[in-house]
Structures are given as structure tokens and as C-alpha cells.
Request: fold
Amino acid sequence: EGAPLLFSPLTLRGVTARNRLMLAPMNQHRAKDGFVDDGLLVHLGKFALGGFGIVMTEASAVLETGRIGPADLGIWSDAHIPGLKRVTTYLRSRGALSAMQICHGGRKGAIQRPWHGFGPLDQTDMARGDNPWPLVSATAEAVGPGHATPEALDREGIDKVVAAFADAASRADKAGFDILEIHGGHGYLIASFLTPVVNRRTDEYGGDLAGRMRFALEVATAVRRRWPSSKPLFFRMSSIDGHPAGWTLADSVVLARALKSIGVDLIDCSSGGLRGSTAIENSLRYPGYQVEYSSAIRRDADVATGAVGLILDGPQAEAILAAGQADLIIVGRQALYDPFFAHHAAQALGHDPDFENWDVSAGWWLAKRR
Ligand code: FNR
Reply:
């Protein structure tokens, strides 16, 4: 009997991850003007020490006005590169691949930190120095009561955002990232074009599925051109947006096929988040609640996929891979609970009994302890 699938390497283009576990993108709301600080380096570094094959940054803004909250990580300026380079250098030194998620928040921008209520930035936030900024979206409709009404992007505005994504890709390459992910889900700018619930445009960027997909495909094409062909490109989508008249799983399969044909290597299969809250995640909280989307997209679009959403331990992750439901296991909150998730999953699966995958300064002692 061979090694667990979870600990088999994953090769995409010119890079190989040591296992099938990736840290989910998770906004830390700690960046000042988009810059990495020591806290973020330590935060991400601990997951490399914890054995993850790939460590992904939080949603990183391609424009200052594309931030979700005031303290998002940024990649809208060359000045961000050196701080990010510290992160990628450290992750590599601990055997993990580094990945960056790039994002434009669209109409879901200028919001408070989750623990301040997730609402629009208000007087209390402004007193802290967190001022709102003008928003853009597919359509001039606010995400909810109290939120600013975004400006609908015109042709020139669209071109500027596409160029910003491409510039971000080149900066991410300079910063040493191995993998790049475009955030196309959760109601942010790209998702606002995809779903008919928000996109009521009458130009070539709206209307039928092809029209609504146009912006996402232009972004992915521009990014793929600027991102080295030796490096993998991921795309996160909301596989369904949860609205009865909204984006469907069948739409996701069509989009996944189109993305694959322009050089996207893996679809990160999330869901929901169309409005302010992630309604689907909140209403359907059972282990592996989004795995079925990964499974369907992988099968029907014939593309590599990542499964995410309450994947809680090694045996559950191994079963998902064994059933052919995903190529990559993406772990969010359980990794916040246990940064050593990957090492502990290996123990649970009877892999690495001698703690050889641990940092030697820990592993040497743990092997002696038995
Ligand atoms: C998230 N999530 C998220 N998703 C994303 O695409 N970009 C992001 O920056 C964030 N930020 C973020 C912060 C925090 C603290 C959490 C808990 C979540 C969603 C995340 O990547 C993941 O899809 C969900 O959390 C579901 O997976 P888990 O947590 O059940 O493993």
C-alpha cells in the first residue's frame, strides 16, 4: 500500500507541491497601506512550518480602490514587492510553494473588519483613520442598505482594471510567488459581472452567459499573458451564488472550460457571498459542504479542481481525493485552529511516523519522544 494521496506531490506546469494541502486565502485585516508586516510574515510562515504544500495569501488588492477593507494586503504598487518577497523567500525555505490571490473588491469594497460588523465604513472607522473610497461594479447598485452605490464601469474603466490585474501578475512574479489565483467569487468585482443578479448591463459585458463571462475571461487572458508559462494560474469561483435566479453550477462548468482553454490550471470551487454575507456558508455548515461543486466541475469541465469548505481532518481530505472529487484540498478555518493541520493529517493517516517532514528542530525531538 502506497503513501496517502494527500501526501502525493502535485505537479502543475513547472512547479511541484510536496502534498495536496493548500492554505485557503484568508484576509487578516492587518496590512497598513497594503504592506506586509512582521505579523503577516509570521502568520503565513507558520503554515509552511505546519507542513502545507501551498500557502496562499489573502485577497490582495490590484488597485487601492479595489480593496475589500482598509487593511487588505496590496499589490497595486511596485513598492509592495520587497515585503512580499520576504514572505515567498521564507515559505520556499520551509519547503512550501507560495501562492497569491489577487482581487478587486468591486461593490463589496470599503467594508469594516469582520469583528467591527462587516458593514460599510462609518464614523467610528473614519475616526480610526479608515476612510471609504469610491466603488465600482458591473452595475450601479449598492450591495446592501447603507453601502455606497458603485459606479458602473465603462469600457475605459474595464480596460484599466484588466491592466491592473495584469500588472499585479507581473509584480507577484517579481515577488517570487509560484502560483497566482484570480478571485472570481464571493460577489467581488469579477463575480458581479458573472451573475445575472447583479449584472444588468446591455453592452457586450452583460446579457447572456458569454457576455457576463467576458470580463472574467479578459482578466484571465491578460493575467495569463503576463504570468510566466512555467507557473500555474488558479481561478476561484462561486460555483453557485445561491440566488434562485443566479449563477448556476452549469454556468460554472462552462466558465471552467473557457478558463482552462486560456491556460487556467485549477478551479478553486467556493460558493456564495453575493451579498454582504456569505449566505450559503452560513446556512449549510456541514463538513465538506462545497465538495460536490468541485466534484462536478472536475468531472464535467475536465479541469483540475480544489475543494474547500469545512474540511476538518486528514481522513476526510483523503476520502475526497480517493473519490476523485478534487486534486487539491484547501483548508481555511481549521488551519486557523491548527496551523500544523498538514503534519497532524499525516500522523492521522499513518504517514511520516518518524516526523521527518517536520522542521528538524521539532521533528528530531518528537521522534525521540515515542
Ligand atoms: C476567508 N475566505 C476568503 N476567501 C477568499 O477567497 N479570499 C479571502 O481573502 C478570504 N478571507 C477569509 C478570511 C477568513 C478569516 C476566513 C475564515 C475565510 C474564505 C476562505 O478562503 C474559505 O473559502 C472558507 O473559509 C471556507 O473554508 P473553511 O474555512 O471552512 O476551511
Remarks:
- The mean pLDDT is 96.
- Residues 24-27, 58-59, 101, 183, 186, 236, 270, 308-311, 331-334 surround FNR (CB under 6 Å).
- The longest strand covers residues 54-61.
